[in-house]
Amino acid sequence: MKFATTALAGMATFLALTSPAFAKNKFPYCTGSTYEVSNKNCAKFDFKDVHTKCVETSNCTTFYDITNLPKQSINAHTTKMAELITNVFENGNTKMGYAYVEALGDGRGYTCGYIGFTTGTNDALAVINQYTKRKPKNALSKYVPELERISKLKFCDTKRNNTSGLSGFPKAWSTTACKDPVFVQTQLDVGNAMYLEPALQYAKSVNVTSNLGKAIFYDTIINHGWQYVEPLINLPRILQLTGPHRKHESEKSYLGRFLQTRRQLMCCYPDDVWPPAADRVADLQRLLQNWKRNKDLKHPVTLKIYGVTVKGTENMSYDTAECKHEPKGWKLPAAKMLPVPDTCPNKLFEATQ
Ligand SMILES: *[C@@H]1O[C@H](CO)[C@@H](O)[C@H](O)[C@H]1NC(C)=O
Ligand SMILES: *[C@@H]1O[C@H](CO)[C@@H](O)[C@H](O)[C@H]1NC(C)=O
Ligand SMILES: *[C@@H]1O[C@H](CO)[C@@H](O)[C@H](O)[C@H]1NC(C)=O
Ligand SMILES: *[C@@H]1O[C@H](CO)[C@@H](O)[C@H](O)[C@H]1NC(C)=O
Ligand SMILES: *[C@@H]1O[C@H](CO)[C@@H](O)[C@H](O)[C@H]1NC(C)=O
Fold it and tell me: How many CA atoms lie within 13 A of 98 on its CB side?
């Protein structure tokens, strides 16, 4: 997970310090009786110990076991719409950030690729391991030993942010993403197994089956995760605090309560990174309001606050933001289903055989 808003959040802090008039409107989507930081809105999240609490892993995965949640399918167009919508929130546009790499200083080492895999939380390693299975000779495999060393540290160990043994890594990641369609497809396949499939299962578990509902769950799982090591902010927490999908409640109404809880969580979180990101939820709420038009995601959708329209006809095969020249004959290979990383042994994270 990465936050395109991090830099802006720092800016807001600066403005708030220098100009008291700004302090009030520091986070414009966290105002009004439903979203302001108040005991009424925030007590349920219990964010008192948020900066001191870290949950350690207790088995071979950092994710909940969801093998018992029901599955549901998604069509190719909806997948594309969901991925593009989330890309707008993460990267500000519909250019897929496969070659993106940045050290954000958030304790996670390098953040890379279209959904922000990181070197500090094992998922960049999972991508490279899967890629190395497909392409044994590549420019990234030499980082595997160092990434494995990091992956063996305690999950709460702050040294997971260490990038000093990864010299040249950013360039190797971007160059590979700009040159090899197999690497791009590997990122997509890992992202689907790690986030899209689980999002669909969680959605089905509360009877959310519309295409818009699937996209909303996908964006939520990318943003909040579903790892038990992050119990205060993850998707299961939002589901629990939203409460059950009531017997005769429409899907639109349930999704409305779900997004309201999600936005309150972001606004109540005591840092400068989550509250400014509440704007993405405001954009999703706007889509939900026009349920009839948007529920199937058949028509283009406009994300008003971000100022971008997602049509569904965009070409997602190449990172036109980060890469210079698209190689001739560029074409992604067919998608491959990979295992969801929620079981022990962990089939997605296990090393190259
Ligand atoms: C990693 O985190 C430690 C402790 O928070 C900090 O002192 C150090 O500067 C960080 N290193 C990097 C490379 O971000
Ligand atoms: C950071 O990683 C390098 C390379 O593996 C290692 O030599 C160094 O001791 C690590 N630093 C810390 C603070 O763990
Ligand atoms: C699921 O939702 C649909 C439509 O919203 C409704 O017809 C159906 O009864 C619901 N099923 C359950 C098990 O809640
Ligand atoms: C996207 O562009 C690539 C080459 O740039 C082309 O091979 C592919 O067919 C295009 N895909 C779509 C869906 O237009
Ligand atoms: C791993 O531990 C977590 C936390 O106790 C638990 O929720 C999860 O189901 C466990 N996963 C497996 C595969 O045992």
Answer: 26
Residue 329 CA, ligand 4 centroid: distance in Å: 9
* Ligand 5 pocket member 344 (CB < 6 A): yes
The CATH topology of domain 50-310 is Chitosanase, subunit A; domain 1 (1.20.141)
- Pinpoint the alpha helices (H) of 37-108: 39-42, 76-91
Q: Which residues contact 178 (CB under 8 A, 6 or more apart)?
A: 99, 319, 322, 323, 324
Residue 343 Cβ inside 6 Å of ligand 5? The answer reads: yes
Mapped onto helix, strand or coil, the DSSP state of residue 344 is coil
| Residue nearest ligand 4's atom 7 by CA | 331
Where helices occur in 104-250 by DSSP H, the ranges are: 123-134, 144-151, 169-179, 181-191, 197-205, 211-224, 235-242
- The yes-or-no answer on residue 106 being catalytic is yes
Q: At 258, which amino acid appears?
A: F
In this prediction, residue 53 carries a pLDDT of 75
CA 115 to chain CA centroid, nearest Å: 6
β-bridge mates for residue 110, sequence order: 103
* Catalytic site includes residue 90: yes
Q: Is the pLDDT of residue 22 over 50?
A: no
| Confidence category of residue 279, pLDDT binned at 50, 70, 90 | very high
Whole-prediction pTM: 0.91
Tell me the percentage of the chain whose pLDDT exceeds 70: 92
Residue 16, pLDDT above cutoff 80: no
pLDDT tens per residue across span 90-115: 989 999 999 999 998 888 999 999 99
Separation of CA 67 and ligand 5 centre (Å): 11
Q: Does ligand 5 come within 6 angstroms of the Cβ of 65?
A: yes
Catalytic residue among 90, 180, 272, 283: 90
Set 46, 49, 83, 106: catalytic member: 106
Give residue limits of the domains in the chain.
50-310
* Rounded average pLDDT over 178-194: 98
The burial of 326, by beta-carbon neighbours within 10 Å (0-12 exposed, 13-18 middle, 19 or more buried), is given as middle
Considering every ligand atom shown, identify the ligand nearest to the alpha carbon of residue 244 and give its number: 3
Q: Report the distance separating Cα 333 and Cα 73, nearest Å.
A: 21
